[in-house]
Amino acid sequence: MLAKTERMNLLLDFYENLLTKKQKDIMNLYYREDLSLQEIADLNKTSRSAVYDLLKRCEKILEDYDIKLQLVKKYQKRNNIYQDMLKLEDETLKVLVYKCLEIENMED
Known about the structure:
Blueprint: H1 2-15, H2 21-32, H3 37-44, H4 48-69, H5 71-86, H6 91-104
């Protein structure tokens, strides 16, 4: 379950702005705030099954985005390359890698 949560959080990092506000809110409550289906249903004055259905739809939407765009895979590959580069003894290269990592981790 933890691996799925980590995967969904990563997908949300990349694609959450492509979701509707309601979808975003529910996904964040479940995956980032760790609320139960019932707690989310109570907050949204809806049924537990409606929350479950929305979560499943959103999970599929996010996975479909990533199949098409592959942003997560590319990000992970870049980070692996950065880590390999940081192991080298070249200080100039390390400075450049840190600058690239800053760009990778920038938020709008």
